């Protein structure tokens, strides 16, 4: 049985890559709802319908857990999905809590990058209210980043990011939270645009740890898998499947460079 990762597009590949490092004896499904990407600019009801349709498709396969590798989809649909399906459904949330804890003593602020829809949801505002007792969290909607990523135009987003960051005095910030799974594709670009003292984090590590705990709890951890990935998409076309495989290779190199730099 495989672990399924779901996203509107290629962003969830960043989370699956972390899983492949922590759980190398598992096999995977990666499903992109490419017919409806991006989710971050759509209505809540639209996203709920798209996610439900995609998960129904995934459940036709033999899966033992599903990771909703999309912050927007998690905030809108994960509760309904857990009520409907028997397998563990692992959601994602921006890594605001660890970012606040990292900056609690330094006096530095936290800047959260996310899609407009994620930032508008009560799940996000409730999270910030719960953990940000010092009121050090600022939120930046980055509407265009998903589009650049889906076109695999990573370096081309540099000017857009420069323009979005221009209004901030980055000397006041200690951490940037990448609150959309597409955004880790830009880790190395962002590092070139911000002061060296700023740490850049995302929710992938915590999500995969939660996934591992759920599999251990149910005795479902595999020892026989080979990190094989079966790619699926809502359009069912070979060009998109090839693009997903290429994106996985591109992100693996981005992640490798980032790890070496750290």
Question: Descriptors for this entry?
Answer:
262 residues; alpha/beta; Rossmann fold; 2 domains; five-stranded parallel β-sheet; four-stranded parallel β-sheet; 46% helix
Query: Distance N terminus to C terminus?
Result: 35 Å
Taking strands numbered 1, 2, ... along the chain, how are they ordered across the largest sheet?
A: 4-3-1-2-9
Cα shape: globular
- Rg over CA atoms, rounded to whole Å, is 18 Å
The SS-based structural class is alpha/beta
Instruction: Tell me what portion of residues adopts beta-strand conformation.
Output: 15-25%
**Could you say what the CATH topology of the largest domain is called?**
Rossmann fold
In N-to-C order, the SSE pattern is: EHEHEHEHEHHEHHEHEHEH
Q: Main beta sheet, described?
A: 5 strands, parallel
CATH class of the largest domain: Alpha Beta
- Assign the CATH architecture of the largest domain: 3-Layer(aba) Sandwich
Low-confidence stretches: none
State mean pLDDT (0 to 100 scale): 93
> What's the number of domains?
2
Helix content: 40-55%
Total DSSP E strands: 9
Total DSSP helices? 11
How would you describe what is shown here?
The protein has 262 residues and is of the alpha/beta class. Helices cover 46% and strands 17% of the residues. The protein is built from 11 helices and 9 strands. It has helices spanning 13-22, 44-58, 71-84, 96-103, 116-120, 122-131, 145-150, 158-165, 187-193, 204-217, 238-261; strands spanning 2-7, 28-32, 63-68, 89-90, 109-114, 137-141, 173-178, 199-202, 229-233. Strands 4-3-1-2-9 form a 5-stranded parallel β-sheet, sandwiched between helices. The chain has a 4-stranded parallel β-sheet with strand order 6-5-7-8, with helices on both faces. Helix 1 (13-22) crosses helix 10 (204-217) and helix 2 crosses helix 3 (71-84). It is globular, with a radius of gyration of 18 Å. It starts with a strand and ends with a helix. The model has no long low-confidence stretch (mean pLDDT 93).
């Amino acid at each position: 049985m495989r672990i399924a990762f779901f996203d509107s597009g290629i962003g969830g590949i960043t989370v699956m890559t972390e899983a492949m490092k922590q759980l190398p004896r598992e096999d995977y499904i990666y499903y992109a709802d490419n017919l409806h990407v991006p989710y971050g600019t759509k209505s809540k009801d639209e996203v709920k319908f798209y996610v439900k349709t995609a998960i129904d498709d995934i459940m036709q396969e033999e899966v033992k857990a599903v990771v909703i590798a999309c912050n927007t989809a998690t905030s809108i649909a994960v509760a309904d999905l857990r009520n409907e399906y028997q397998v563990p459904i692992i959601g994602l949330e921006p890594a605001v809590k660890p970012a606040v804890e990292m900056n609690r003593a330094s006096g530095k602020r936290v800047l959260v990058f996310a899609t407009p829809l994620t930032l508008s949801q009560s799940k996000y505002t409730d999270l910030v209210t719960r953990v940000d007792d010092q009121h050090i969290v600022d939120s930046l909607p980055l509407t265009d980043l998903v589009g650049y990523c889906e076109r695999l135009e990573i370096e081309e987003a540099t000017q857009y990011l420069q323009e979005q960051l221009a209004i901030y005095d980055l000397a006041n910030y200690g951490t940037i939270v990448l609150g959309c799974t597409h955004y880790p594709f830009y880790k190395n670009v962002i590092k070139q645009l911000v002061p060296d003292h700023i740490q850049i984090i995302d929710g992938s590590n915590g999500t995969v740890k939660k996934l591992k705990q759920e599999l251990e709890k149910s005795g479902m951890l595999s020892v026989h898998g080979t990190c094989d990935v079966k790619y699926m998409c809502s359009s069912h076309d070979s060009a998109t499947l090839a693009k997903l495989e290429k994106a996985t290779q591109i992100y693996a190199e981005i992640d490798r460079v980032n790890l070496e730099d750290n």
